[in-house]
Specification:
The complex is a heterodimer of chains A (434) and B (138). Chain A has 434 residues and is an alpha+beta fold. Chain A contains 17 helices and 21 strands. The chains are: A alpha+beta (434), B alpha/beta (138). Chain A: It comes from Auriscalpium vulgare.
Chain lengths: 434, 138
């Protein structure tokens, strides 16, 4: 039953993550548009609800009113604007607030890619734990607001497994806000074995704590972004920075924007400096590694030694003090893996461990793949981790899988066409996209 | 989620020949050059397992059906038909994606498979590891 057969039209692939929204043409090997999922907005109303919004940290800010302009893309949240607040529609990898979604997609497709979504079939990705209501809402947005001729929604877990050439695999996806372990068996997600936690957020919070708390080798570090600094002069490592702050801007920087800027600084630091030891935590091993130099936008610069490995260690173990102080810590990667395996058939466990697929931008954390390999080899006889060496493949694995799938001539019979949507409505999404 | 790639009827005919004729030892399948269907690439009557492994290329994906024969501990020969999915790490990502998303169509078409193997390097589909798995059952 071929309902949609637009052979010459290349499809679009959209992958919405917690940190970025990736969009591009099917068949390409990297997305054309990569824009932050985070957006800025300036609350229009006065008085009461602004102060309310100020009270909450990022993610809890009041959603923007319909009439307020959204600042999206490269010139969105990273450009300083007076009283601008920050919002992000993705919570735990799932879209939580659909209001800004059409604006984000429009920006990626029309403004960045300069293409007309009415002319292209669209393949969207979803996390394995996406809800039925959510995917139907997505289909509705694509068909009704963007008038796409055809649509398909595919699971990132399965896409990642398939992109590694595996029908059965244990997909470990570490993103910016969520780490998940998805057992895929013969091309289907084993729902009961699917587990995820907010582990990357804990790692980030710990990194931030490491930086802002004074320690024996560095004073308290101010995580000011370059947007709030008017000038600075170079200083020797470890010396107090000499810079001038833009007081006029600081006064009108909303708390949510400040949190966003700070987390960006922490991310940058983590990506350049932090790592994880390949053989488990060991004070001597950590001290034996070279210290790394890093300079913050304020001009403060210093060498980071063992503390840069403590940050990565949180992916694998929680210290006793930390576990005692908070019983609801996000589960570590080894815990997630053993929970996922416990839910699987014993025969299946060995197959899954022989086919571990590592993906997501967070998995590029220095040393993480080696450490994971070492941890798993200790507990299982035959472990093989498939981790693409190419960072683009790792970071955008789900997008890339979707890109290849949607570019196949034979895939056309699987698209949900606009006609089918009009005839069957929401029910067709669940029937077709398994 | 599948690629929509079809299975050429010849794949089934050859499989029946292996299953019922008892002459063919193995069949190698692959996606056709125009990426539209799964076709038979090679059939062989050779009993050498090494020859079979040599037919699994280092940088391309293949499916295979192998009529695995072994001696049971208590004596007596057994035959088990095994299904292999071969996707080496060095294969191109497009080939791997196409391969994995088409697997289900072929696998469902073949009736009478006793064991399945998924491999990306020869050690995972070695004679010993296959023997170990097939002889564990009845």
């Amino acid at each position: 039953m071929v309902q949609y057969g637009g052979d010459e039209v290349s499809a679009l692939v959209i992958d919405i993550g917690a940190s970025t929204l990736r969009a591009g043409y099917a068949g390409d090997d990297a997305p054309k548009a990569i824009i932050p999922t985070t957006y800025g907005f300036i609350p229009q109303s006065t008085g009461a609800d602004v102060t309310m919004a100020d009270a909450g940290p990022e993610g809890e800010t009041e959603p923007p009113k319909a009439e307020s302009t959204l600042y999206i893309g490269q010139h969105g949240p990273s450009v300083w604007r007076a009283d601008m607040q920050i919002g992000n529609p993705v919570v735990d990898g799932m879209i939580n607030d659909f209001k800004p979604i059409p604006s984000l997609i429009t920006h990626a497709l029309r403004d960045v890619m300069r293409c007309n979504p009415e002319e292209h079939p669209v393949l969207l990705t979803e996390p394995a734990w996406n809800s039925v209501a959510n995917r139907e809402r997505m289909a509705e947005i694509m068909f009704e607001e963007f008038n796409v001729p055809a649509f398909y929604i595919a699971n990132t877990g399965v896409l990642n497994a398939f992109a590694a050439g595996k029908g059965s695999a244990l997909v470990i996806d570490i993103g910016n806000s969520t780490a998940s372990v998805t057992p895929v068996v013969d091309g289907f997600v084993l729902r009961k074995g699917l587990v995820y936690s907010a582990l990357p957020q804990l790692v980030q919070a710990h990194a931030k704590h490491t930086l802002v708390m004074p320690s024996h080798n560095h004073p308290q570090i101010q995580l000011l972004p370059h947007q709030l600094i008017s000038n600075k002069t170079p200083v020797e490592p470890g010396q107090a920075p000499r810079f001038t702050i833009r007081e006029d801007r600081l006064a009108r920087t909303s708390p949510s924007l400040m949190t966003y800027y700070e987390s960006r600084e922490v991310d940058e630091w983590g990506q350049s400096v932090a790592g994880v030891l390949d053989q488990g935590w060991n004070d001597q091993a950590a001290a034996a590694r070279h210290a790394r130099h890093y300079e913050f936008p304020t001009g403060f610069n210093t060498l980071f030694g063992p503390e840069r490995y403590q940050v990565g260690e949180l992916f694998f173990t929680h210290s006793r003090e930390l576990a005692a102080s908070n019983p609801h810590l996000p589960r570590t990667i080894p815990t997630l893996i053993s929970q996922a395996l416990a839910a699987c058939d014993p025969d299946m466990r060995q197959v899954l461990m022989g086919n571990v697929v590592l993906s997501g931008g967070g998995s590029l954390f220095a040393g993480l793949a080696e450490r994971l390999n070492n941890e798993l080899s200790r507990n299982f006889p035959h472990v093989k981790i498939h981790a693409p060496g190419n960072p683009v493949e790792r970071r955008y694995g789900g997008w890339l899988g979707g890109s290849i799938l949607a570019s196949l001539g034979t895939f056309h019979q699987l698209w949900i066409s606009k006609e089918e949507w009009n005839e069957h409505g929401k029910a067709i999404v669940g029937q077709r996209c398994k | 989620m599948s690629s929509g790639v079809a299975v050429n009827p010849e794949c089934l005919d050859t499989f029946q020949e292996l299953k019922l004729g008892k002459k063919l030892k193995y069949i190698i399948y692959a996606v056709s050059n125009d990426n539209t269907e799964i076709v038979v690439v090679k059939t062989s009557e050779s009993a050498s397992y090494d020859e079979f492994l040599a037919d699994l290329p280092a940088a391309d994906c293949r499916w295979a059906v192998y009529d695995f024969q072994f001696e049971k501990d208590g004596g007596g020969k057994r035959n088990k038909i095994c299904f292999y999915s071969w996707a080496p790490d060095d294969a191109k990502i497009k080939a791997k994606m196409l391969f994995a998303s088409s697997s289900d169509a072929l696998r469902r078409a073949l009736v009478g498979i006793a064991a399945e193997f998924q491999g990306s390097e020869h050690s995972e589909v070695s004679y010993e590891s296959v023997l170990d798995k097939v002889s564990r059952g009845n």
